[in-house]
Amino acid sequence: MPPRREMVLNAFTMNCVGHINHGLWTHPRDRSCDYTRLDHWTGLARTLEAGLFDAVFIADIAGVYDVYGGGIDVTAREAVQLPVNEPTLLVPAMAAVTSGLGFGVTVNIAGEHPYTFARRLSTLDHLTSGRIGWNIVTGYLDSAARAVGLDGLAQHDTRYDRADDCLDLLYKLWEASWDTGAVRRDRAARVYADPAGIRAVHHAGPFYRSDGYHLAEPSPQRTPVLFQAGASGRGQRFAARHAECVFISAPDKETAQRTVRSLRREVEAAGREPGDVKILVGISVVVGDTAAQARDRLADYAAFASPEAGLAHFSAGSGIDLSRHGPDDPVGAGTGNAIQSNTQAASRLGLTKRDLLGQLALGGRYPLVVGDGPAVAAELDSWMDEGEVDGFNLTRTVVPECWEDFVRIAVPALQERGIHKRAYRPGTLRHRLFGRGDALPPGHAGAGVGAG
User: Fold this and answer.
1) Is 276 a known ligand-binding residue?
2) 106 has binding-site annotation
3) 60 annotated among ligand-binding-site residues
4) Could you tell me if residue 9 is left (phi over 0), alpha (psi between -120 and 50 degrees) or otherwise beta?
5) Where is the secretion signal located (predicted)?
6) Per-residue pLDDT tens digits for 228-273
7) Does the annotation list 232 as a binding residue?
8) Distance (Å, rounded) from C-alpha 93 to C-alpha 189?
9) Domain limits for position 369
């Protein structure tokens, strides 16, 4: 078989009990409730590295899902991303037991000032030897805004305007505050860093101001690999300027292809090459040694899933309380200030609440691939071919067996098909993904910025 395009493969998870496929924490073999144990995460890291995953992509929210039913009853009972712990603190421990696995961490730009955040990500880039990525989120939960003293979320497009300003300041800190040769570590001359190579950043933007020096010396990548997941028109324009990996949600290959082509047009309009961005789709896989075993496993998992918890999740993401909808009411019949692409997609497809419940067999709405190793490999290959995606964010089902089964059964079939690596490339996460070195490429908004 001729060589195929190599996929990007991330494990999609969260520092919580229930992430995407809700209710499966009740399965007797599931160990998601061990999320507060460090060995839970170091074990995951070792498993993913054995399967040559590019990264573990750790999602996060800073609020609670309180739209469905006007409260947190379902959210709390079903552990719908509540409780949820901080994601970045997991990285050093997972990095300590791996050498090739990358880390994509989700941090909301509203969580702290870019000045202190820049140091946190530089520290992680140092400690991982350049394996860190940042998933840029602008927030979509009113509950998160209220929790920190605001009346509610800013308007959708205003949140992206703030994110643009945040990134402009971060680029100055990461890329321009320290020259590459500023760090000398010269014991004899008693010069650790040459002050002539360090300059203050001066930023006076519409949302952020800063006058100060970046506190961290240049890390292997300087700027972490930039992930982003906005699919609205404004979100795509933001991605075209900043993102290196874009995470999309698509119910089928046709929708994925349409989204991918739209994103690549925006990337070109922003003056970048279409290949400067890797586009990944969220997907769930249930794999078995045989097709029959995979089908039996799916039925077993589905018996423990919670479609209602999936509705609570969707309600939070859309801003629409689906508990008020009748079974045949259209899901997209409403407006919200949350994730606009959710309601737009539901409206375009004409989904009703009954349709949505039908999609929630595993408690989550991502496309589901079921089969033995060759069948799973063929279907993922088809998503790359027909959907034109570059790879996948693979969701968890029953932990840890879902990861272990995928590595044992699906990975060899993917390798045999020629779409999954047989070894990690050397170097940083950015170099492994793009093969062009550690730094942001020319044409990126952060490349070549000045300090003022």
Assistant:
1) no
2) yes
3) yes
4) beta
5) none
6) 997 788 999 999 999 999 999 999 999 999 999 999 999 999 999 9
7) yes
8) 36
9) 8-434
